[in-house]
Specification:
Elements lengths: L1 H9 L4 H35 L1 H7 L2 H4 L13 H30 L5 H15 L3 H27 L14 H25 L3 H9 L4 H12 L1 H17 L2 H6 L17 H8 L6 H34 L1
């Protein structure tokens, strides 16, 4: 391979090929730089727009939940709490389901035809528009799960997370609809990662006498863990920024409640609901909330890159 590459570099190249190579290099650098420039420009615009609110409220904006445009008082703790809780809980539910589904359709547990059908259905689930999922959550999912939510309230109301009666839209239905939305991402990326595990590695595991589940748990999943973690972090970023379906089912309440059964809010839902009619310092406060969301999202992506790099070196 190395010899072939040296021969390619030493051969006499026609001028037209050199022009194409140089043009392609400049085009690639330009397009790659545009991504960084656009990201930096968005960050600067959001930060600049939030300076008024930052100077007026400071850190108090992050730890208070009083969002009152009439009195010109703003605090985004309810939305920040809702963003983190809905994202983390949806991830805790979706990761076992997604990775388990990926293992199920890649490890010859069921016939190939059924595996193909399940794979296609997962990909079709990702193609459903979020507004359609929001309508489905309002008219089908929430009425269906309400008896279970009433049971949780009647038996576990002594816990802060179930301390209020379910009244329709709320944080719990928002968590479940996020599970539906991020499940295809985790499943598809985990499936691709598992398919990239070398066949020789699988054969070596079975060659030393391990069982199927022993090979899956001790060899195949660890070998694909970097790709799976990358998919999980990508799904977390999607959950934190999801807007339409969450806005339709979470209740959009700025009154703080730790209960998952009460109406809540997220930063993305708050921006979608209020930005069109906001003016004055409310615009700056919404920009401040958007800046917080961008920082959280960038932190998740940096963490994902670090985890993938660490796990890739290990396996």
């Amino acid at each position: 391979m190395t010899e072939t590459k040296e021969l390619y570099l030493l051969r006499r190249r026609p001028p037209s090929e050199k022009v194409v190579d140089v043009s392609f290099r400049y085009l690639a650098v330009t397009l790659a730089s545009m991504v960084a420039v656009v990201l930096f420009a968005i960050l600067v615009v959001v930060f600049w727009g939030s300076l008024e609110s930052m100077g007026r409220y400071g850190w108090k904006f992050l730890v208070t939940s009083n969002w009152n445009p009439v009195d010109d008082e703003y605090g985004a703790f309810t939305a920040i709490y809702g963003t983190i809780v809905t994202s983390v809980l949806s991830l805790l539910i979706a990761v076992p389901l997604g990775v388990g589904t990926a293992v199920f359709i890649t490890e010859n547990i069921i016939p190939l035809r059924i595996r193909s059908v399940i794979g296609v259905m997962v990909e079709l689930l990702a193609a459903i528009p979020s507004v359609v999922l929001g309508l489905w959550a309002i008219f089908v999912m929430e009425p269906f799960i309400r008896p279970f939510l009433n049971f949780l309230y009647s038996t576990l109301s002594w816990l802060p997370f179930f301390s209020s009666p379910p009244m329709g839209p709320g944080t719990a239905p928002a968590v479940l609809i996020l599970v539906v939305m991020i499940l295809p991402i985790i499943t598809a990326i985990s499936r691709d990662s598992l398919n990239q595990v070398p066949v020789k590695l699988r054969q070596a595991a079975y060659g030393v006498g391990t069982t199927r589940w022993g090979a899956i748990l001790n060899v195949i999943l660890p070998a694909a863990i970097s790709g799976i973690v990358g998919g999980v972090m990508l799904a977390l970023g999607r959950a934190m920024g999801e807007t339409m379906a969450v806005t339709m089912i979470i209740g959009n309440s700025n009154n703080f409640s730790a209960s998952l059964l009460a109406p809540g809010n997220t930063i993305a839902a708050m921006l979608a609901n209020q930005f069109g009619e906001a003016d004055g310092s409310q615009v700056s406060s919404l920009m401040y909330a958007a800046f917080v969301l961008m920082v959280l999202t960038l932190a998740v992506n940096v963490l994902a890159q670090w985890l993938v790099k660490r796990l890739s070196l290990k396996y």
